[in-house]
Amino acid sequence: xxxxxxxxxxxxxxxxxxxxxxxxxxxxxxxxxxxxxxxxxxxxxxxxxxxxxxxxxxxxxxxxxxxxxxxxxxxxxxxxxxxxxxxxxxxxxxxxxxxxxxxxxxxxxxxxxxxxxxxxxxxxxxxxxxxxxxxxxxxxxxxxxxxxxxxxxxxxxxxxxxxxxxxxxxxxxxxxxxxxxxxxxxxxxxxxxxxxxxxxxxxxxxxxxxxxxxxxxxxxxxxxxxxxxxxxxxxxxxxxxxxxxxxxxxxxxxxxxxxxxxxxxxxxxxxxxxxxxxxxxxxxxxxxxxxxxxxxxxxxxxxxxxxxxxxxxxxxxxxxxxxxxxxxxxxxxxxxxxxxxxxxxxxxxxxxxxxxxxxxxxxxxxxxxxxxxxxxxxxxxxxxxxxxxxxxxxxxxxxxxxxxx
Length: 405
Description:
Blueprint: E1 2-7, H1 17-27, E2 35-41, E3 57-64, H2 71-82, E4 86-91, H3 100-106, H4 109-115, E5 120-124, H5 142-159, E6 164-167, H6 170-180, E7 185-187, E8 208-216, H7 223-236, E9 240-248, H8 255-262, E10 269-273, H9 280-285, E11 287-291, H10 302-309, E12 313-317, H11 320-329, E13 334-336, H12 341-352, H13 355-369, H14 374-404
Parallel strand pairs: 1-2, 1-4, 2-3, 4-5, 5-6, 6-7, 8-9, 8-11, 9-10, 11-12, 12-13
Helix pairs in contact: 1-14, 7-12, 10-13
């Protein structure tokens, strides 16, 4: 099978590029895949396709740009040129741009594949029905939220024209089946990027690192985390370092620079900037606790799966999709009220002052992460493509038989 994947890809800074990297890493090792065609966004640096493991041929075609109105044409042209047997779209609603028209045009691409009769799956990481538009940085205006809701419903109907729409949470399946009467939605878990050998759960010498990882400024804000760690330091006397790993959300440029300036009086606060793939293991392994300083959620959390794979205790807000992941996939952590610094401080304190509890959470989360390795997720997509192709062949035979008669 020549499998094309429409996605952002490292060194891209567009969302979901890391997910694509790990999915590609697994697909290329599958015997069913003879060639991977990456239909990616344009980047200054070369795409990261140097894997240590043996695998199939990888062809990269940089054919789209964030916020370009021509993406629907350029990606379609690339599909026509490369002639894949199947296409996987790695999507969320702002994948092709944060401008409404550019984003909407890009999301029409699965429908284009359907019209061309190319087997296709959309991996949809979030659904607008479960996104707090204000907290996530879309809009706080109530009228605009209604307009976004209408647009989101229309785009969802368009996306559902794909052969199969895969979502990462059972709740999403339920919503799409009930609201849209969609018969082609399938649950395929997010999966865990790297499953290393079980860690020894020990920490490096020096301050205990309280780490958060992501793109910050909208519903992910770090001020409360810094203040919470200050409270824990004052109460316990522990040597704690705040590690803020990642970059600004594209909708809030300059956010982290302002936080760094506003909190320069606070000791032991480290801003790492963009984290390269090869730096991720060290970042997690050296952390005592991984914190999710979110005020809302927009989908299944890749960071939670990463934290689990490295055997880390986590502190999470008791809301939305994170709470559901704990219920559905077996993760455990300390919960806090999203708007309360004191609640966050208590959650962090509960872990850093109790080594046995930290170890217990770490082992539970490692076991949860190992239940869905990325290799298994890749197999689920290949099985789904096989089902789609079989169905198309059957339908073609029925049509041909009818014509002959």
